[in-house]
Amino acid sequence: MNKVTMIIVGAIIAILVLFGGTFVSEQNAIVALEEKVNSGFANIGTQLERRADLIPNLVATVKGFTSHEEDIIQRITEAREKMSSASSVSEMSAADAQLNSALRDLNVIVENYPELKSSENFINLQDELAGTENRITTARKEYNEAVKEYNTKIKSFPASIIANWQHKEEKEYYEVSEDKTEVPIVDFSD
User: Which of 33, 56, 94, 98 has the most CB atoms less than 10 A away?
Assistant: First the structure.
């Protein structure tokens, strides 16, 4: 082989190595970001489940003081079941909104029972729910940041070529409907 042919072959090999390295690097970045999104979604689910697990204790405490408030207790139970069976971001968000609404209605009922508001068990539940609401907010924020990072990556060149080739689609943000953005009030003290 002459010197010119060797230079051309070397240049072609260098270009192939460069493109191969870029492909592998971009592919790994997409996979890492997708896993970050999946992990964030699981974290939201964990925190929502934690809150849902506190609900039976809350319901039992309220039932002990209010025997005729079955409608709200039924709504809370149904919302909790939907939360547990949610498999997508939109289903989870809708179930979360339904549960928040039921909890707001429960808070109105609790106002009519001062002895319930002063119950130590109820106060402890209030503290647990407040902490859980903060964890849910943090998990939602982290998930949406991961979604933003992932969506930006799969839209950016050269990762967009790989993402299109692998049929990667944008991930859905966890959004709370505007009429449901009010966080349930969990402070039952006077």
Answer: 33
Tens digits of residue pLDDT in 136-153: 999 999 999 999 999 999
Alpha helices in 118-172 (DSSP H): 120-155, 159-165
Residue 74: name the closest of 65, 64, 63, 84 by CA.
63
84-85-87-89 Cα dihedral, nearest 10 degrees: -50
CA distance 173 to 186: 26
Domain boundaries in the chain?
3-180
First to last CA, the chain: 91
- Per-residue burial over 133-151, b if 16 or more Cβ lie within 10 Å, else e, is bebbeebbebbbebbeebb
CATH class of the structural domain 3-180? mainly alpha
Q: What is the pLDDT of residues 56-110, one digit of tens each?
A: 887 777 777 666 567 777 888 888 888 888 888 888 888 888 888 888 887 777 7
CB 39 within 8 A of CB 178: no
